[in-house]
Design brief:
The protein is 41% helix and 13% strand. The chain is of the alpha/beta class. The longest helix has 19 residues, at 262-280. It binds pyridoxal-5'-phosphate.
Length: 383
């Protein structure tokens, strides 16, 4: 039976027989979400403006400790307009980690620019500043650290490189709402930050994203770009070609209710990680690591197996026991649009992690028993 069929079967079980399937992630909507959405429906404010859009943007900016937050229809759309606002254009290069979700690289491509892949650090799994330094060329315009799986990238050395070479820094914070670097929240560390609110993220709006920055002119520019390019002071006057990347008031209503509970979500994620850490201690595997300067939000708690194990077989065995997992992202240099023949030797850390990494169930609703069940099943596969 294929892994997909097994997954469908396992998902059926959860519908009919309760919690027999342990999913990778869950959307938890048990705060004010329904009340705020009903308010949108009752008042007719269902499109790309309204009180929830304003409130969500204001409160998210406060949460990240930045001056401006601009909502968008997805994290990908946010990355696209943020890069455009930074002036990324055809002929430019943007340094992106080889280990990331494809949207980081695609957003660069949408601008007509070229993503240049740098390797990641073997412990934090985020951009390695030494490799970034090697990849800087006269065409480099920006660096895009990705706070992968909830762990912040090591920003200070990247900011130093950016300042020395006159580059912008755009944080891809899609997976790391509330993560901290030396006590400061992500989204306010570089020139601009971008978050995703896809259903499996720390907080969710269905689809949706947010751009964060302290730079007013950059915030104005992304507002212009995401709103069809319409001049805010002159209705139906379009000085540029813009996009319809607006978040709806309904999405923002869900987002605001989720944001009210974000500290609870983060605490639960960290509790789940602490339980995994404890249970994994004696296993011969590398687990999600938290650097001394970091507060991770553990979007997806992850493990990396050693060479002797067949990662994909182990994932199938876990699925047979109702445990959903996910392989690490493919290296960007393996994907057809970005294929590099010599990538495995020039990007060795990503190549190795991507072949061996597994994201484990990381829902905020997991219980101690769930985690014991998952770790016992994993232990049995390794022994
Ligand atoms: C690292 C990273 N960047 C960007 C995105 C894109 O966000 P969205 O799915 O909201 O477009 C994601 C989403 O999964 C992501 O994980």
């Amino acid at each position: 039976m294929s892994a997909l069929m097994l997954q469908e079967r396992a998902a059926e079980k959860v519908n009919t027989r309760g919690r027999e399937f342990i999913p990778l992630a869950e959307t938890v909507l048990n705060g004010n979400e329904k009340r705020y959405v009903l308010d949108c429906l009752d008042t007719g404010w269902i499109s790309g403006s309204g009180k929830y859009v304003d409130d969500f943007e204001r409160e998210f900016a406060t949460f990240c400790g930045v001056e401006h937050a601009v909502s968008v229809s997805s994290g990908t759309a946010g990355l696209h307009v943020a890069l455009l606002a930074l002036g990324v254009a055809p002929g430019d290069e943007v340094i992106v980690p080889d280990l990331t979700y494809v949207a980081s690289a695609n957003a660069v491509t949408y601008c007509g620019a070229r993503p240049v892949f740098a390797d990641v650090d073997p412990t934090t799994w985020t951009l390695d500043p030494l490799d970034v330094a090697r990849k800087i060329s006269p065409a480099t315009k920006a660096i895009m650290p990705v706070h992968l799986y909830g762990h912040p990238a090591d920003i200070d050395p990247l900011l130093e490189l950016a300042s020395a070479h006159n580059l912008s820094v755009i944080e891809d914070a899609a997976e790391a709402h509330g993560a901290e670097y030396k006590g400061r929240r992500v989204g306010g560390l570089g020139d601009v930050g971008v978050f995703s609110f896809f259903g499996n993220k720390i907080i969710a709006t269905g689809e949706g994203g947010m751009i964060t920055t302290d730079d007013k002119s950059l915030a104005d520019q992304v507002r212009l770009l995401k709103g069809q390019g319409m001049d805010t002071a002159r209705r139906y006057w379009f000085p540029i070609v813009g996009y319809n990347y607006r978040m709806t008031n309904i999405q923002a209503a869900i987002g605001l209710a989720q944001l009210e509970r974000i500290n609870w979500f983060i605490e639960k994620k960290r509790e789940v990680a602490a339980l995994y850490d404890e249970a994994m201690r004696s296993l011969p595997i590398l687990t999600s690591h938290e650097a001394a300067w970091a507060k991770s939000v553990y979007w997806l708690y992850s493990v990396c197996l050693t060479e002797e194990y067949d990662r994909d077989r182990i994932m199938t065995r876990l699925l047979e026991q109702g445990i959903e997992t996910r392989p690490f992202f493919h290296p960007m240099h393996h994907l057809p649009p970005y294929y590099q023949r010599d990538g495995d030797s020039t990007l060795p850390v990503t190549t190795n992690l991507a072949a061996r990494g597994i994201n484990l169930p990381s829902s905020a609703l997991l219980t101690r028993e769930d985690i014991t069940y998952v770790t016992s099943a994993l232990r049995a596969c390794l022994c």
